[in-house]
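quick q for whoever's on today - can somebody do inverse folding on this one?? i tried earlier but teh output was garbage lol. tokens:
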């Protein structure tokens, strides 16, 4: 879908609209306010003088700002543009992805967060060394860095390209402005600045989306007229229970396959775990995860509603909203808020894992020097981000879509690696490394193979009520084509399962880890938890069927 968006945004802009002074002022205020928050935390409190404060905000964050920051981290500009485009082109079937948020957040809240918090980690990849060995930790860290560096360039370039294509706003002016501001407030203000700018940017995101929806509905003639138009236009999709895993979006691909995607983002991703670990208490860390649920639902609802009231987001904003001074600027601020929140989180988490996992274990240094080096790392990743944006600029849109897919491909194998260690005490370090390698091979094989086999050329808007889930002529691909046709929503499930399966096989072949050799607190007691839950269910059942609780009829 993002490729389709970029293809449209790259067309000849003969009907190009332009920003007014008010629009430029609103956009500039976003950057100035974000920079001011970073400067505030750079020169107040502890002045970011320790690694504990710079990386983990002195473990003093409350659950409300953390929950908004957790939501904003992966609510990127790609989602702000892509989700409405998806809903417009294929209907509201995508809205069912909200179902996966339940398990996708409950499992981290009750399994991953308590374990990581009690181990007093400073990097989530420290867990891999505690559970397996240093080699596994380094493999996990390098994989994460590879994942995030690629996504940084895409994350900052996409909104700049969209803005340039629609408004004529200077492409590299937008890239450099956002890259510079984001780098400075992250390097100067540390995690506190990142979290609080995320809060501010979330408010801007929601405000911009809501404003566009309200004006769009008004322009359509009101709620009732808007509803009739989207209904008659075939944009309202019913629940699709088709079990075929090659169908792009069904209830199962979104509601079940999406759980694995959520776990890779909110369970084991350094950017999110770092926020959990910055909480004052474990209870607040868990509560912040709970509070992400309504935040994500609101973000999803706003994005889907935008898709119902417009054709292509930025074109709609610049065309229909031109008579509302400042509204195009507000929406562009919304778009870049999403970009800033994602990129700043990437800078901070990359600086943390590089320092904690790759540098500190090999070089001893004073706290002051470690803090300075952490800030320099954040600054360096900012420069790399702008450089990656230029690399993305040199790609065509098809390669850009592949680069975006890589982000999703790598998350699944990392999730599988952590699940292997947490849920299977018999797994050893050889199995872990081999399983991760197998998962990455599977991810790139299926992901890139599937991408090359589909290669969409243009947006095809549905002319009637359909969820666009059936292939022409009910054709069902077989063999490798069947594997390549797997819905992208199943990628994380397939890749993480590959890591676990291969990891367990190799572990048993090379000698499984004995129970006494497993570090305390690194394995989740699955059997004990299941037995406890079963005991409670039996007790509850017995209570409900006891004579004193039985209703007697006379």
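ok took a stab at it. sequence:
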């Amino acid at each position: 879908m993002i490729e389709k968006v970029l293809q449209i945004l790259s067309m000849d802009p003969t009907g190009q609209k332009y920003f007014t002074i008010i629009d430029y002022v609103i956009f500039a205020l976003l950057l100035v306010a974000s920079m001011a928050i970073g400067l505030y935390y750079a020169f107040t409190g502890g002045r970011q003088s320790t690694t504990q404060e710079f990386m983990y905000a002195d473990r003093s964050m409350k659950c409300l700002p953390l929950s908004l920051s957790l939501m904003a981290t992966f609510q990127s500009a790609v989602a702000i543009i892509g989700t409405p485009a998806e809903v417009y082109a294929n209907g509201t079937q995508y809205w069912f992805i909200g179902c996966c948020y339940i398990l996708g957040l409950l499992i981290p809240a009750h399994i991953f967060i308590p374990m990581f918090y009690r181990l007093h980690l400073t990097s989530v990849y420290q867990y891999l060394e505690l559970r397996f060995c240093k080699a596994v930790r380094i493999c996990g860290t390098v994989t994460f860095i590879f994942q995030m560096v690629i996504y940084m360039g895409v994350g900052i370039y996409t909104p700049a390209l969209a803005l340039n294509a629609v408004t004529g706003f200077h492409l590299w002016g937008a890239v450099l402005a956002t890259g510079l501001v984001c780098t400075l407030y992250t390097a100067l203000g540390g995690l506190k600045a990142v979290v609080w700018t995320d809060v501010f940017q979330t408010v801007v995101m929601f405000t911009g989306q809501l404003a566009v929806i309200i004006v769009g509905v008004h322009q359509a003639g009101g709620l009732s007229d808007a509803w009739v138009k989207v209904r008659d236009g075939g944009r309202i999709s019913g629940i699709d229970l088709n079990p075929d895993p090659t169908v792009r979006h069904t209830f199962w691909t979104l509601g079940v396959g999406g759980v694995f995607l959520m776990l890779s983002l909110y369970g084991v991703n350094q950017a999110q775990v770092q926020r959990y670990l910055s909480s004052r208490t474990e209870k607040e860390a868990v509560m912040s995860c709970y509070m992400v649920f309504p935040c994500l639902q609101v973000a999803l609802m706003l994005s889907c509603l935008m898709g119902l009231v417009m054709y292509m987001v930025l074109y709609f904003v610049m065309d229909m909203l031109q008579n509302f001074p400042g509204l195009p600027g507000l929406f562009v601020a919304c778009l870049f808020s999403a970009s800033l929140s994602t990129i700043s989180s990437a800078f901070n988490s990359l600086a943390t894992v590089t320092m904690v996992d790759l540098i500190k274990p090999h070089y001893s240094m004073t706290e002051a020097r470690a803090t300075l080096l952490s800030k320099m790392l954040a600054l360096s990743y900012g420069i790399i981000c702008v450089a990656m944006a230029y690399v993305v600029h040199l790609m065509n849109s098809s390669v850009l879509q592949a680069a975006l897919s890589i982000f999703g491909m790598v998350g699944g194998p990392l999730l599988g690696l952590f699940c292997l260690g947490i849920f299977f005490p018999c797994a050893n370090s050889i199995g872990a490394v081999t399983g991760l390698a197998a998962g990455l091979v599977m991810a790139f094989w299926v992901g890139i193979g599937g991408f090359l086999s589909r290669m969409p050329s243009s947006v095809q808007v549905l002319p009637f009520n359909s969820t666009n889930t059936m292939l022409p002529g009910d054709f069902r691909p077989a063999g490798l084509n069947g594997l390549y046709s797997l819905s992208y929503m199943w990628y994380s499930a397939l890749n993480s399962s590959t890591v676990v399966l291969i990891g367990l096989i190799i572990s048993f072949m090379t000698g499984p880890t004995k129970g006494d050799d497993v570090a305390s607190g690194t394995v989740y007691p699955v059997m004990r938890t299941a037995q406890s839950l079963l005991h409670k269910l039996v007790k509850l059942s017995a209570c409900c069927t006891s004579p004193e609780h039985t209703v007697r009829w006379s």
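fwiw The radius of gyration is 24 Å. also The longest helix spans residues 171-219. so keep that in mind when u check it
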